[in-house]
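Researcher: I'd like a candidate sequence for this fold, 157 residues long. If you have to choose between options at a position, lean toward the conservative one.
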């Protein structure tokens, strides 16, 4: 299943859950008394959930825009690492590739493409937290580059 389709299905399920939670919260709020407090507390969770889902979709859109830009220039990383039976890259090869990508970032610390490739290398090495952090940095640099290249007065998020 394509990642966007899966993300869409998960988002639809979450929206359904958020709607049910919101409905239950409103029932408690309308009952009054101590249930009012419980209803307000329950209402916070769907609101927080919607915020998180929206932020994730925005981040995904920005990563996709960066990937499309890199792809159009032929700068996307190639998935050519040897794989284990699980489908994950072999650790030694991933570590070697990571060292190359880290050196590229040190040589060009303001290059969004270098940070994107480093994020992929972190993911291949199994470090998802640093992969996400590096991808955030890549997206931020890409946004800065877009703003600098765009016409005056435009704002790209």
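Model: Candidate sequence:
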């Amino acid at each position: 299943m394509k990642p966007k389709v899966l993300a869409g299905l998960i988002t639809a399920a979450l929206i359904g859950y958020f709607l049910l939670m919101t409905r239950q919260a409103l029932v408690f709020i309308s009952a009054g008394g101590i249930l009012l407090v419980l209803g307000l507390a329950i209402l916070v969770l769907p609101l927080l959930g919607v915020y998180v889902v929206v932020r994730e979709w925005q981040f995904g859109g920005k990563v996709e825009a960066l990937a499309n830009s890199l792809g159009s220039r032929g700068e996307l990383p190639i998935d050519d690492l040897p794989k284990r039976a699980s489908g994950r890259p072999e650790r030694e090869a991933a570590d070697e590739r990571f060292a190359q990508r880290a050196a590229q970032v040190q040589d060009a610390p303001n290059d969004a493409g270098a940070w994107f490739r480093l994020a992929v290398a972190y993911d291949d090495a199994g470090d998802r937290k640093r992969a996400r952090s590096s991808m955030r940095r890549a997206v931020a640099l890409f946004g800065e580059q877009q703003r600098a290249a765009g016409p005056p007065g435009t704002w790209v998020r």
